[in-house]
Amino acid sequence: MDAITIPVDTELAEAYRQADQQQRQKIETLLNIALKKAVNPKPLLTIMQEASQQAIANGMTPEILESILADE
Question: Model pTM?
Fold first, then answer.
């Protein structure tokens, strides 16, 4: 995975900096999905399946994802 820099509102940047690792992981996962949808004409289901496979390859388990999403 590559890192990029994207300008965001000051409040968002500060909230991200203060977030714990689990919250950051949730934000990064959601941003990856949103950016893939924005730059790729693939159907959303295909993008979500690819994101799921990538998350699993990076150690994400269904239990961890459920825990992250439950923290909303």
Answer: 0.56
For residue 41, tell me if it sits in a domain. Answer: yes
User: What is 39-60 written as a DSSP string?
Assistant: H--S-HHHHHHHHHHHHHHTT-
Q: What is the C-alpha separation between 9 and 12, in angstroms, rounded?
A: 5
> CA–CA separation, 45 vs 25, rounded Å?
21
pLDDT tens string, the chain, 72 residues long: the values are 899 999 999 999 999 999 999 999 889 988 988 888 888 777 878 878 888 888 888 888 888 878 877 875
- The domain total for the chain is 1
Could you tell me the residue range of the domain that residue 28 belongs to? 21-70
Cα–Cα distance measured from residue 50 to residue 47, given in angstroms and rounded to the nearest whole number: 5
* 45 in any annotated domain: yes
Query: Residue 29: inside a domain, yes or no?
Result: yes
